[in-house]
Each structure stands twice: as structure tokens, then as C-alpha cells.
């Protein structure tokens, strides 16, 4: 009885358990990676400030509260601004190779399209301000403005939108912060995905503009007195025209109800980087990773690359964006 052969069943169960654990370990890394947080770059360009009377969008600050007075920043936008929090508390920007997005190891929605903090996090941290970030990767202004995202189109594939983000903010924002008008800055950045979606199957730019300013108007009606617009990092006729019209709306709002606004033209910054990357401290490949889905095959020195994954800034470039934004606010006051 005691000397008989041991049953193989427990061994089989143990082997299956070990195999499952190994598979899980391979799927999700055991430990995160903290990337080098040095900042070897220099802001080698300054804004081109313009007048409030300009008929084209221009870099300007029409009286937004001074940086040391900002206590809360509310952000709307796409993957350049998205920190995965959807208005709540974000996951720290830890890296879990080969996953290329900083943030959660298990939930892709709680990550950043970068290898560290995004610009608005750096901006808010610099000011010791609370951040409510509603930006979501892939977002457009209004899904109904583009054939490829229109829910009424059988082939449409709706994305996140400014309309959706603003709706969520109006539902929960007042419970997350006092949102004191004299201490709150609202940042808005759209256009990249609007241009891309319109290029797929066409769109209605009048609808996009009307939805854009409708949401700005609702924010103003809810108490927003300080609005910062990030312009596109590239120039296209459709988005340039959109930005001209948004600038005109805010210029009129300034005259009618005293809304303070600022406009930051990221095209100025990124054109300067493209023309002379070395002056900023960049070297090597402009884009660190070859793919947006894995770190495998990527560069060894992301702190000297403009982009982390294709079309998305590295963490050091996000810091430059924050610095450039602050330069507009400080130097372009009218």
C-alpha cells in the first residue's frame, strides 16, 4: 500500500498549472521598466506672436490667467493629450516591454501613446495644478462630420470625439473639482484625426466647425473663462481653415464676453525641429520605434528621438511641447 507507484495525476495537474503560469508570464511582463528620464533637449525656437485682429490663426495669449494662478487644467483632445485617465486618476507611466505604451500592463485604454508623461501632464505638474484629462486616442471633433465615422453609415466606425468628451466632463467634472473659473484652464487639441478621417471618405467641415465651437460655447456657459487651443503640428488646407474659423470665434468671444484664450501653433515648433533637429538636441532616427504595437527592434536612445511610435511624440518631445506652450502664454500676451 505504502510502497505502491505514486499516481501521475498530481504531476500532470502540476505541469498544466506551471504551463498556464508560464504563458501568463509571457503575456504580461513581471516587472515594469522605468526609462531614463534625462532631458537632453533645448527649446531652440520661440513663438511667432500675432495680433488679436489677425484674420488667420496666430500665436497669442489674450489674457489667460498667469501660470502661477492655474490650479486646475481640464484637457480635451486625441492621443497626443491622452493619458489614459478619462478624467480620473491616471496609471503612472511605467513601461511594460514589449508593450510600447506607458501606463497599465493589462488595460490598453489606460495607457499613453508615448514612453512617458504626455505634454499636458508635464504642463500641469510644472504648475502644481490638478489635471482632469478627457482626451482619448483617435478622437475627432464630431463623428457625424465624417463618412468613415458616421454612426448612420453602415460602414462607419465611430471614434471618440470632442462631443463625447465634453458630455462626460459635464456629467462628472463638477464632482471631481471645484473648477473655480479664475483658477481653471481648459485645453483643446483636435485636427489630426479629423484630417485623416476626412481623407478616407470625405467629410463636412462646416459640421466639424459648428460642433467644435458649440462645445466651446457650452464650456463657456458652464464657467470656462480661460481656453487654450493647440493647433496642428502639420499644415493642411482643411485643418488650417478650421483653425482660422475657431480663432475667429474665440476672437469674437473675447470681444463679446471677455473670454480669455490662447492659441499655440505646434506647426511652428515641429517645422523648426524638422529643419534643424540638432539645434534642439535630437540625433539618430526621428522615430524610435518601427511599429506602434511593439518595442522590439526599436532604438536604444529614445531621449534623442522626436517621435516614440510613428506620429506620436517621445516623452522628451512632450516636454518640449509643454515648454513651447508656456512660452506662448508668457511671451504672446496682448
TrEMBL record:
Q: Signal peptide span per the entry?
A: 1-25
Q: Which SUPFAM superfamilies match?
A: SGNH hydrolase
Q: Which Pfam families match?
A: Lipase_GDSL
Question: What protein does this entry describe?
Answer: Carbohydrate esterase family 16 protein
**Does the UniProt entry include the keyword Signal?**
yes
Native source organism of the sequence: Dendrothele bispora (strain CBS 962.96)
Top-rank taxon, per record? Eukaryota
Which GO terms label this protein's molecular function in UniProt? Answer: hydrolase activity, acting on ester bonds
Keywords of the record, alphabetical order, are: Signal
